[in-house]
Amino acid sequence: MIRLLSYISYLLLLTSCFLPDEVLPRVSPKEITIRLNKTDKQTAYVDLSKIDKSSDSTRGSWHLKFQNSAKGWAIYLNTLESVAVYNTKITDFDKVNESNYELDLKWQVDIPTPSGLYPAIGDWGDFGFANPKSYKDVFLISWNDGNTTLIEKLQILDASETAYHIRYGSLNGDSTKTIWINKNSEHTHSYFSFKENSQISNIEPNVDKWNMCFTYLSDSIENHHNLPYTETINPNFGLYQGLAINYKSNHVYFDTATTFDEIDYFQAVGLEYIRKDEIINPFMIWDSLNSTSTVNSKLTLIIKNYDSYFALKPISITRLKNDDYTIRLIVKQL
Amino acid sequence: MKFLKSTLVLFVLSISHQCLAQDSTAFFILTQEDIRNNNITNLEEALKLPAFHQYYFKNVSTTSSGILSMSNIAIYKDDRPLLLDQNTGYDLRAIPTWDIDRIEVHFAPTSTIVKNSSAIVVKLISVPIIEEPFSLSATIANTSASDFHISTQVSLSNKVHTGKIGLNRSFETAFYADPEDRGTAISALERYDLNFIYKYKILRIVDLTIGGDNSVLKTQNRGELIDGTTRVRDINQDLRKHALFGTISSALSKNHTLSLNGLIHRYKNDLITLDKDLSNAKEQQFNGPSSIFSTSYDQGYMQLLLVAKNQILNYTIGLEINNIKDNQFPSIKAIASEYSDYSVLGLFEYQLKNSFKLEGGTKILTNSLTGTYFMPQAKLTLAPNKDLQFVGSFHKSISYPRFGDIFYPSEMRDGIENSLLLKPTDINTFNFKVVVQKKNIRLQSGILFIDQTKTPQPTRFNTIENSGESRSTSTYASLVLGNKIWNIRPSIIIHGTNYLRDTSRLTFFYPEANIYAQLQVPQTKLSFNTSSRFVGSRTYSYFYEGVIHIEEQEKFNNVSLSVSYLFNRNRLKIYFGINNLRNVNFIASNTYQLYDIDREQIGERRITANKNRSFFFKASFQL
């Protein structure tokens, strides 16, 4: 009996130990197709952790975009809808009328800078206060409803960490409205449409539900003289196909040294990532002589989101004459 | 016969230790047979005791009793501190129970223990060395979950020199949070122990004891597969614990004994966070901000005690010196991360006939960082007749703040600043009980009142201060009933707890009931054993970011059965049993944020009350 127990115990001694790790098959990269045009598919938001075969592009029929972070006060313009601004420097809303509109006004659009997009509306108040004190400047806003260009006047009355208070109306004073644009921390920006006469939602997904957005971005023509662009109201700036990166914990690395197959988590984790809000046409090489586009096959874009890493590589990019784009990418989570 | 004898001895010990005003009375004793019958292999498993509440979350166990956390419950082995100063996060799985004779739970005992001691004291008592020329014992156990334990102990003695050495290997398989995924709720563990003790009777009145407890514990906390990848993040633990202790005692006279105890304890807990890719077997250590840091501490402890035993007046006076040093981060911002304390104690015991006994005394402790503490204790036992005792006691003691709260900077502690001047928690305990004891029955019932003040609490400025207060009242009753053939030991406790007495009057109650029973079938060598535990829904509250949070944990139970039989002229005992018969494993734990008149649920998690139901087979051989 005791001998039998001894044999059993020797046997069990050998079998009871930590299990080795199982071996799993490699996860195949996923493919994604982005289709963009300037009419009804202006933006495509991509959540890299839930990547789909294709990503829906939508038309963003907004005109003003308000920064939502508690201490952020920037107001941006939608260049795709030909929105531009002119600061009258007049602070009495009622005194601004048709007489202030001239054909040769110096309309401004948002200015891309190395540190991000600088809003054409600029610093509209004194942000040194907990609730900014507005300078009450009245701005002229030019926008296009698809057929005609319309001019409105806009005054930012005040703002708090939870909302912006604005007044706007036609130059003849027939229709003047005062509304609150609520800040919503679940989204990077809140949106306003002169056409809808209200704050509009469903323009962008929840801030935690997207990493990057394929869209059209304005930038200096001087900086990208080799790339195709669409003209804007400001002759110095063009509209380019671009990539907006979600500011919330997304950082990028441009890898041209390692092949897509070789990149894995262990390599990616040691790279030095940078914060970049906007990238102009990262995946395309443009042959301006022949007006043809080819894919930048050497580039792998690595995006770090908190502890997650994603590698993106373009497969093909097609540009039609009217600046419609079809971009195919493969994506793998590292 | 040795097995039978040990069971009966302990049973008798628990019900008829001393009569009249001699108050021995542990609230509960977990005997060696209980340990074997329930296949308990380490202290963590053993602390599923009456009065205790335990659950696991993400491979970490949390044990408490009412408002007391593990740092406020003194745990001693053979009167030596077992878990450093209990403020460093000791892994209880590193303490084996294969060499433990019994575990006693005491409420407010009179003791020479200086810290963490006023309310609940858990005493582990080692299996005594058999003073025979040669003895050998071995145990193997295997479970249906593929756990395996093997231990052997050899002792030699010629009456002057006595020695024992014991070896053990334990392996416990992981318990998975989800059978479809690899993430562990309770990690697998492998532990090797080498414990030894040597006793030398230098003179007829002078004894020297030297011993060592050494364990190596390895665990693998396996992470779940990260969505969309073949990657996982695991935590590998490599814990090494070495305790070397010695005692020299001498009878100075017929009534006086002087003893000097010493302990050197090293605890090193390496935690390595590993990123692994299961598709190509690559792995790399993760050192990001969310990685868990390793710990390593040294303890030096010495106690000098003079014990005088007279007919009427007994007394104990002593000195205690203790030092804890951090080896992992020996200095932080040019400040050495270590502290010492020095204590003197004087206790007396006065007995008038058999009906009145008064015990009292005080301890004075000086901590090198925070100052001097005065800790009085008093206990009165009245025995109007030989079957009845009334016992009332008061104790004051202290419990050190977590080592990290004292020394570790905010980068290591979620942004909370440390404080070198953080004082210990004050624990005031009142215990009143009635003990009725007859030939085959012992009933005790009472109220244990615990008041904690100066509990370290984070402030909204991310500092930490001694501002917390909590209070609990536990009403308890336990019964030991039986004879040489059978015994039954039920107990019931209702815990009333107020964790945030400094800010709210929220008092929560949770009940628990425990039944341990053994039956020796007459005229056979067959025994049946059962232990059952029923713990009601438990609620506790805490502060987080300046808001009161409430956690509600579901009720659970654990029923175990076993049968044992003696073979081979009583030298071999075979056990067969089942743990967690009703297979209660995961329970819900919901978190609420408390507002003025309402509460909002903000979280829900599954915590583990028990591992899955499993069968075990055990053979114990003694020569």
Structure explained in plain terms:
The complex is a heterodimer of chains A (334) and B (623). In chain A, a hairpin with a 5-residue loop joins strand 19 and strand 20. The radius of gyration of chain A is 26 Å and the shape is elongated. Chain A has helices spanning 2-15, 265-268, and strands at 30-36, 43-46, 54-55, 57-58, 64-67, 75-77, 84-87, 111-113, 116-118, 125-126, 133-134, 138-144, 149-159, 163-170, 176-182, 189-193, 198-200, 212-220, 230-231, 237-245, 250-255, 278-280, 284-287, 292-295, 300-305, 308-319, 325-333. Chain A contains two helices and 27 strands. With 623 residues, chain B is mainly beta. Chain B has a single domain, classed as TonB-dependent receptor, beta-barrel domain (Maltoporin, Chain A), CATH 2.40.170. The chains are: A mainly beta (334), B mainly beta (623). Chain A binds chain B through residues 1-2, 5, 8-9, 12-13, 15-19, 21-27, 49, 264-266, 269, 307-308, 333-334, and chain B through 140, 142, 146-148, 150, 169, 171, 173, 182, 188, 190, 218, 220, 225-232, 275-282, 284, 288, 290, 567-568, 572, 619, 621.
Number of strands of chain B: 39
Distance between the termini of chain A: 55 Å
What is the CATH superfamily classification of chain B?
TonB-dependent receptor, beta-barrel domain
Highest-level CATH class of chain B: Mainly Beta
Regions of chain A with pLDDT < 50 over 5+ consecutive residues? none
Tally of structural domains of chain A: 2
- Looking at how many chains there are and whether they match, the oligomeric state comes to heterodimer
User: Number of DSSP strands of chain A?
Assistant: 27
Overall morphology of chain A: elongated
Q: With helices defined by DSSP (H or I, 4 residues minimum), what is the helix count of chain B?
A: 4
Q: Quickly give the structural class of chain B.
A: mainly beta
Side by side, the strands of the main sheet of chain A go 3-1-27-26-25-21
SSE succession of chain A: HEEEEEEEEEEEEEEEEEEEEEHEEEEEE
**How would you state the average pLDDT of chain B, rounded?**
91
CATH architecture of chain B: Beta Barrel
Strand content range of chain B: over 45%
